[in-house]
Specification:
- The protein has about 400 residues and is of the alpha/beta class.
- It has helices spanning about 20-35, 45-55, 65-75, 90-100, 120-125, 145-155, 205-215, 235-245, 250-270, 300-310, 330-335, 340-350, 360-385, and strands spanning about 10-15, 60-65, 85, 105-110, 130-135, 160, 170, 175, 180-185, 200-205, 275, 290-295, 315, 350-355.
- It folds into 2 domains: about 20-245, Aspartate Aminotransferase, domain 2 (3-Layer(aba) Sandwich); about 250-385, Aspartate Aminotransferase, domain 1 (Alpha-Beta Complex).
- It is globular, with a radius of gyration of 22 Å.
- It binds ligand T4K.
- Ligand T4K binds near residues 17, 66, 199 and 319.
Length: about 400
Amino acid sequence: MRNDTPAFSEPLHVGRPNLASPEKFIELVNGALSRKWLSNDGPLVRELEAQVANYLGVKHCVAITNGTIALEIAIKVAGLTGEVIVPSWTFIATVHALRWLGVTPVFADIDPETHCLDPESVRRKITDRTTGILAVHLWGRPAPVAELEAVARERSLTLIYDAAHAFGVSAEDKMIGNFGKAEILSFHATKFFNAIEGGAIVTNDDEFATRARLMRNFGFVGEDHVVIEGTNGKMSEISAAMGLANFGGLADLIDVNRANYDAYVRGVSGLPGLRVLEIDARHLSNYQYVVLLVEEDCPATRDDILAELRRNNVLARRYFWPACHRMEPYKSLDPEAGADLPETERISDQVVVLPTGTAVNVDEIGVIVDILRNTVEASVNHRTGGTDGA
Ligand code: T4K
């Protein structure tokens, strides 16, 4: 008989915010309230920009309202028009940001080992209308930066990165934030570095940073002089306060995430058809996304596993299913796009993202692994007509 009591009485969420110091946050917010300076390039935003730039070893950090607006401003500053090559295997914001600005996203396939763009697929998608590549460091795994740089150089394309998942991550010995013309970060509450809502454009290009700063503030220079078109992409002091309060906790958070990742890898090893997407030891990682792959030879389906986890109050996610080319408006614009994206199609049916961070501990991960084992064993028994574990 199946035990219908969930293994956890309270839900375990993917994306639970990590809060290093609520006390420091309150103290910083009180400072902002007494200064009566709440937005528009305030002192906390400036301090956050300096700390981020220093942490990443990058020349400029322009703090923005959120990662999506950061993408939109970066796309504008980069002057991308016509077609831009982008993965379909990403969060929808990457692709929407292009289309929102009237640029046509053209989907390229991914490397199944990194889940990031496959440079050969990118090459095949270049046309006379292509002006750039918007690559993603998905799950904080670095995209193939050297190969993409080579394609961009050969074909005179502008390369920018969506590094929303990749704060505190490196590609070998160089921190993410230093690649392409510019990279964008997300500091959303669910991210490794949490500023409630927030993001940034980071770049080593002076001109790019200057234009991004102008566009973030409607194109204003001074009080009544507008020099270019712009938008409102300013970060509030409250978001910056949360970011600054969390900065000091990042090293500890990496340790927590690393211990969780190791516990999942140990627990899942030996379960048929299941594996945790590996992290390449040549790169620094923030270990923020634990990506479980339910491969073709697994006796249980991805959705059986997800349903069983959820029944037990483990609110895992099948990010980023369905892939962007299967969501509107892209699905209707090109219903056949999937034919050229075999790895995206395959991988998007395999992924379950598991809870990590301070929301879960290693003992709880042991229970989550037991749920996975029981689900797989029950599927084997179901197929063979056995009764064990049923
Ligand atoms: N590029 C990439 C590759 C991205 O992944 C993202 C965002 C962006 C660009 C755009 O950056 P932002 O504009 O967002 O800065 C969530 C996040 O909202 C989104 O930031 C993130 N990626 C995406 C991967 O995840 P949803 O639609 O899945 O959110 P939702 O409401 O389902 O919440 C996710 C989980 O987090 C749930 O289990 C609940 C939990 N949660 C969430 C919040 C906000 C909490 O426990 N507490 C909270 O305060 O998009």
